[in-house]
Automatic annotation (TrEMBL):
<feature type="domain" description="YjeF C-terminal">
    <location>
        <begin position="225"/>
        <end position="493"/>
    </location>
</feature>
<feature type="binding site">
    <location>
        <position position="260"/>
    </location>
    <ligand>
        <name>(6S)-NADPHX</name>
    </ligand>
</feature>
<feature type="binding site">
    <location>
        <begin position="57"/>
        <end position="61"/>
    </location>
    <ligand>
        <name>(6S)-NADPHX</name>
    </ligand>
</feature>
<feature type="binding site">
    <location>
        <position position="124"/>
    </location>
    <ligand>
        <name>K(+)</name>
    </ligand>
</feature>
<dbReference type="InterPro" id="IPR004443">
    <property type="entry name" value="YjeF_N_dom"/>
</dbReference>
<keyword id="KW-0511">Multifunctional enzyme</keyword>
<keyword id="KW-0630">Potassium</keyword>
<feature type="binding site">
    <location>
        <begin position="409"/>
        <end position="413"/>
    </location>
    <ligand>
        <name>AMP</name>
    </ligand>
</feature>
<feature type="domain" description="YjeF N-terminal">
    <location>
        <begin position="9"/>
        <end position="215"/>
    </location>
</feature>
<dbReference type="GO" id="GO:0005524">
    <property type="term" value="F:ATP binding"/>
</dbReference>
<keyword id="KW-0067">ATP-binding</keyword>
<feature type="binding site">
    <location>
        <position position="323"/>
    </location>
    <ligand>
        <name>(6S)-NADPHX</name>
    </ligand>
</feature>
<dbReference type="InterPro" id="IPR000631">
    <property type="entry name" value="CARKD"/>
</dbReference>
<protein>
    <recommendedName>
        <fullName>Bifunctional NAD(P)H-hydrate repair enzyme</fullName>
        <ecNumber>4.2.1.136</ecNumber>
        <ecNumber>5.1.99.6</ecNumber>
    </recommendedName>
</protein>
<comment type="function">
    <text>Catalyzes the epimerization of the S- and R-forms of NAD(P)HX, a damaged form of NAD(P)H that is a result of enzymatic or heat-dependent hydration. This is a prerequisite for the S-specific NAD(P)H-hydrate dehydratase to allow the repair of both epimers of NAD(P)HX.</text>
</comment>
<feature type="binding site">
    <location>
        <position position="439"/>
    </location>
    <ligand>
        <name>(6S)-NADPHX</name>
    </ligand>
</feature>
<comment type="similarity">
    <text>Belongs to the NnrE/AIBP family.</text>
</comment>
Amino acid sequence: MKILNVKQIRELDAATIQNEPISSLNLMERASQAFVKWYEGRFDTTKSISVFCGKGNNGGDGLAISRILSGKGYHVRVFVIEYTKDASEDFQQNLVKIENLIQVKSVYEINAMPEFVDDHVIIDALLGSGLSRPAEGLLAEVIKKINDAPGPIISVDIASGLYVDKSNEKADTIIEPDHTVTFQLPKLAFMMPQNAAFTGDWHVVDIGLNEKYIADASTPYHFTDQSSGEALVKFREKFSHKGTFGHALIMAGSYGKIGAAVLSSRACAHSGAGLLTVHVPECGYEILQISLPEAMISVDQNRNYIASVPELDSFSAIGIGPGIGQEALTVRVLDELLSKIKVPLIIDADALNILSKHPDLLEKLPAKTIVSPHPKEFQRLAGESANEYDRLELARNFAQKHNVIICLKGAYTAVILSDGDVHFNSTGNAGMATGGSGDVLTGILTSLLAQKYTPENAAIFGVFQHGLAGDKAAKKKTKTAMIASDIIDNLGW
Ligand SMILES: NC(=O)C1=CN([C@@H]2O[C@H](COP(=O)(O)OP(=O)(O)OC[C@H]3O[C@@H](n4cnc5c(N)ncnc54)[C@H](O)[C@@H]3O)[C@@H](O)[C@H]2O)[C@@H](O)CC1
Ligand SMILES: [K+]
């Protein structure tokens, strides 16, 4: 699924109006009906509704939604916030359509706002994708008042005051909705953890915008939803044998952190690799043999941390990093590995921290190496950024400059390809923010690379599958009780 910028969203509306053809007023009606259909699925008529409208097309949606909901038996109060004399054409037409049906109250100053005594539902249709500056004056006061209300808030298209595709300032006044019901495509703003409070749970409703425009639109931003994620799976052929699925090597663990090696190896074995060898320091030998008899163990000559590179010839992909520590000899191992490796590589955890401290090694990374930092690791690797939009730009530049693929971990893990394209992942949950869950991802990615998924598909699909398994684990155990091993236990289709 594509994510478009504001200019493209406007062009998409215009292309739909022109090519279908449909009037902009009827398109607004269709959008409002789609919103109402979503609403009916959530709330019955026992809850009364207050709709707050601005005077642009988002406000026009608010008026149309009020009319349609009222026609379906909901008790609706409508308020138009009079922050300006100007109103959009479609807003004015919808005002005429509603006037004889429901009383519309004009709010010229904050004292004219209703008191929110019960927990009725608030629909926020003040400002939409047309936001061009922060909300101020009466609008800002109204937004604050709405945010203090007890009942659930639902934003039409996007929370009023939130920019679609660029960062807000910390001081901006923005609606904090429980739900955002957005039209046709998710917005870039929803992908940013900094906007979590200004997004709530978001839902895309189809309003039949021009498919050809969407297909032709050029954008670096994509959303890996269920169907685009599942489409990447390579099904196993009947006549395949273990050689078909490659031989993965995982280099992981040090004294006290052999668990990281176990988790990444188990995840690798459970993600379809034909064969798996785990290279661990001597202290990990028995632990690995017992916890994962399916794996072959390559024992390092060093007792407590990895100090040598094993013979690499038989492997089809390598993952290095979980729990390896940062001893000087381990740094040398990474250096030697980067010089010798001829197969796809994934670098994570301590191996990433080594890279941050030895930037000269960055130049040695083979093309399309996958790196999977969490935000702090990425900061150590690439430097600080003022906000998450800047961080994403930094990551896109980094990926292009070093010709690598970055899985920037977070609520919507961003898989950043070496051409700068970004694929935000849809699966996963807060229960996965727990020790070892990154090691599990490393194992999955190594396994997919061994099975000859392209590095791009391995990264997008691996992150998707990791989140999906996490979602299944959370369902069974709850987000609080689940641990990284539960993610492994729920891998597979
Ligand atoms: N164009 C279309 O065909 C469709 C548009 N739709 C709705 O239209 C919305 C976009 O409508 P608009 O482009 O009219 O924009 P908005 O309704 O978001 O904003 C209205 C106007 O307010 C002004 N404005 C921007 N920031 C302001 C601020 N901080 N304080 C005061 N005024 C400010 C702008 O000049 C803008 O023209 C979408 O979010 C969606 O809800 C939907 O009806 C679907 C179809
Ligand atoms: K809104």
